[in-house]
Structures are given as C-alpha cells and as structure tokens.
Amino acid sequence: MSNLSYEESKKRVRYGLVLLAVVTGIEVLISLFGKGHMISSVHGNIFVLATCGVLIAGLSLYKAYFIVYEFMHMKYEVKGLAMSVILPMLLLIWAIIAFFHEGNAWKYRRDDIKKRDSLPAAPAQESGLLPAHTYQMEWKG
After folding, report:
1. What mean pLDDT is predicted for residues 44-50?
2. Which residues form a coiled coil (predicted)?
3. How far apart are CA 40 and CA 38, in angstroms?
4. How far apart are CA 27 and CA 48, in angstroms?
5. Who contacts 89 (Cβ-Cβ below 8 Å, separation ≥6)?
6. Are 38 and 32 in contact (CB under 8 A)?
7. Quick one: how far is CA 32 from the chain centroid?
8. How far apart are CA 44 and CA 66, in angstroms?
C-alpha cells in the first residue's frame, strides 16, 4: 500500500466504503425479504429463511474478509503474518458455532429438566451413596 499515491489511496478507501455499503444494503434487503416484510407470502417459509440465512452469512464473511485484507492491510503483508491472524479467527468462529450448538441442546432439554425438578426426591439410602452389595466380595475360585 505504500507504493500508492495519496489520491490512489483515497480512491481505494472510497471503493471499499462503497463496496461495504452496497453489500450491507443487499444484506438488509435479503433480511427484509426473508422475514416477509417485502412479500408477505414468504413469511414463515423455512426454505426461504434458510436460504436467506446462508446468503447473509456468506455476505458477512465476505465483508469480514474484505475488511481484514484491505483495511487491516493483510493483503500487503507476508503470508505467515496473515495466517497468524486468520487461523485464530477461524478458531473463534468454531467456538461460536460450538456454543450455539450447546445452547440449543440446553434449550431442548429444558422441559425435561423442569419435569425432573417437579418429581419428589427419592429417599436416601442408609449405607451411603452405593447399594450394600457393592461392598461385598464373592470368591470364585
């Protein structure tokens, strides 16, 4: 980037800002369409929601890529430095997906947990936590 003149640098920044604005506008339109605000007959259609979600995720990833490579100047750095930024970011994305998966599992198990909480507690055993036959050894010889 240091080989660009001041005017060329301003043009690159303007190009980046316009590109990000256009992609964001497209994301907003896709979101409005997917939620049924533009065409009411698509409201609640799971295929349309899934398609819109994938499109929005793809456009968001493109914007993140563009910001990292252009505005953070990773495009002009050596590959090792760029990978030292990109790989931890991919691990962060993986962690977010894992947390969403775990939270979804908790959400679906919540009714089971409420049902178990409403049951009366089982009586305590007299000899401790394990049954009495656990402590007895049999000789098979």
Report:
1. 87
2. none
3. 6
4. 14
5. 68
6. yes
7. 21
8. 32
Q: What is the pLDDT of residue 121?
A: 78
Using CA atoms, how far apart are residues 52 and 27, in angstroms rounded to an integer?
A: 9
Question: Tens digits of per-residue pLDDT, 114-129?
Answer: 888 888 877 765 655 6
Any residues with CB less than 8 A from the CB of 31 and at least 6 apart, and which? Answer: 52, 56
In one-letter notation, the amino acid at residue 76 is Y
Task: Report which DSSP code applies to 68.
Answer: I
Side chain identity, residue 36? G
Element spanning 113, H or E: helix 79-118
Identify whether the C-beta of residue 119 lies closer than 8 Å to the C-beta of residue 125.
Answer: no
